[in-house]
Amino acid sequence: MVSQYDGYNYTVRLERGERLSEALEQFFVKSEVQILGASVTGVGAAEQLTLGFYDLENKEYNWREFPAMYEITSLLGTVARDEHDNLMFHLHGTFSDRDYQVVGGHVKDFVVGGTCELFIHVTYQPLKRKRDEATGLNLLDL
């Protein structure tokens, strides 16, 4: 992973074989400034995807693995802190296979294919998440 900081935004390039969850955690822990909230966008390639769909009735994610290589056609989301100041990544993505078939959902993790380019926009105000009992989700506490 390599990154560049312009005083407010980060551009991050993940290398082939890096795991998204580990790289993001490492990046936010080691960043030049403590990031209290951010939005994330990205493109690139990924394999070994784990995507989820939230079952609101049962208050749980249904996870599915996609082992092939995919183009990341869109990756976006937020980074916030929970009530205990732990990082929480909320990412969604769409991914296209070699037959141009698209899958998408809540991104749990993936391994970077050729590259993954992320743009991380730091928010002006801290972002916090708080558990919502009605949905079972950790919602932005605004």
Layout of secondary structure:
Layout: E1 2-5, E2 9-15, H1 20-30, E3 38-55, E4 60-81, E5 87-96, E6 102-122, E7 129-132, E8 137-140
Short descriptors:
8 strands; six-stranded antiparallel β-sheet; two-stranded antiparallel sheet; flat; mainly beta; 142 residues; 8% helix; 60s Ribosomal Protein L30, Chain: A
**CATH homologous superfamily placement:** Hypothetical protein, similar to alpha- acetolactate decarboxylase, domain 2
Q: Percent of residues in helical segments?
A: under 10%
What would you say the CATH architecture is? 2-Layer Sandwich
Kindly name the structural category. mainly beta
Total domain units:
1
- SSE run: EEHEEEEEE
Mean pLDDT: 95
What proportion strand? over 45%
How many beta-strand segments? 8
How large, in whole angstroms, is the Cα Rg? 15 Å
Number of helices: 1
List segments where confidence is low: pLDDT < 50 over at least 5 consecutive residues. Answer: none
- The rounded distance between the terminal residues' Cα atoms is 32 Å
General form: flat
